[in-house]
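Appendix C reproduces, verbatim, an entry submitted by the partner laboratory led by Prof. M.T., so that reviewers can inspect both the input and the predicted structure.
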Amino acid sequence: MSAGLREELRREATAARTYDAYAGSLLKARRGRRHAVLAWVLLVAAVALAIPLLSRSQPPAPPADGAAGALPDRLGLPAFGSRGVAGLGAASVVFSGDGGRFGPFFDDADTCALVGATAEDYRTLHTGLAYDHVLLSPDGTMVAVPDRLIHLSTGAEQPIPGAPLAWSPDGRRLVAADSRVRIIDLATGATNDLGPVDRWSSAAWSPDGTRLAYEMDHRIIVSDATGRTLGSFAPAYGSVLAGKGAWTPDGRAVAVLRAEARSWQPSWFDPASGREVSGPILPAIGGEIFAGSLLGWRPDGAALAFVSGEHPRLLALAPGAAQPVSAMVLPSEVTYLDLADRAIESGQVRTGEPPFVIGPRLWTRLATGALGVLLLGLLIRRLRERARMRRIVATPWETTHGPLV
């Protein structure tokens, strides 16, 4: 071989790019393992994303006509990221309380939780600072909050004048109050004015829906369904109607509570004459009580009462019983609770299943974000590998093969 040819081959070998087959095979194997791990991670993320989406696309069916639903034996706090009320169909419980689960501030909750009438489906509804002016319709298909009704099947809203006080048993009329107390016919929008509102205003319909007891100017007034006054009486100062279930099941007496009493136990009054009369002897509720309400009567004759305090309680008060009996286990954060009349009257109780701390909406957002981060990481890694391959420098022939002969 001539010296010139040898020199030319040397120059070509020096300029040639070489490839380390062993190092390349290791790099390819590592890349394959990383891609396999990423594929499994992406698959898991996709499944986690799909589960809440599938559950959202198949909401529980509303109860059939005549189906009253049931009350859960325990409540849990609503999950962060719970779905809205549209598609719920009907609810048996609505409640609110203190803490982040019920709104942005610990002392100013603006969110209520609803539990399905036939399934443990928790939903949330932003009501503003409604406090106790949130009422389920008798069949649980609507919820009344200040200035509006919400249909739980569609989420559609219907305006009302003021804050709700009481539903009629058939769900066709609603007593509401702004500057005036009114009976509203929900089908026609017609109203019957009952008078000016004051701090004591509350109302309760008789079980047959023919009479209404409401408070005004420290008096309890009884009217017919159109608002025509049938009678009135003045209970002891500071006494209030016992709640939406204040009438006895036979409509013969109305329950009144003494605000300054050390225990929660109603007194009974004749709605026509205003005389104190005998009524169901319900066991007294002791302990620290901030507020209480008689919500309705079960088929076995027991009244359901909710009391808030250091330990909120929903209790069954059987006439003649020595002590109240717990009807539902409540979280300590609960400060307000209402039940659908039909669920109370059914007497049915189901096993409560409190939700996980993360609800479907928040879970979907978290899963979507995680999937996006993984895809971005995969893209960045791929771009870095390409850049690294471009930076491979030429290795002289002699370095890997020895000198040319």
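The helical segments are 3-15, 21-57, 341-346, 360-390, 397-401. Additional entries are available on request from the coordinating office.
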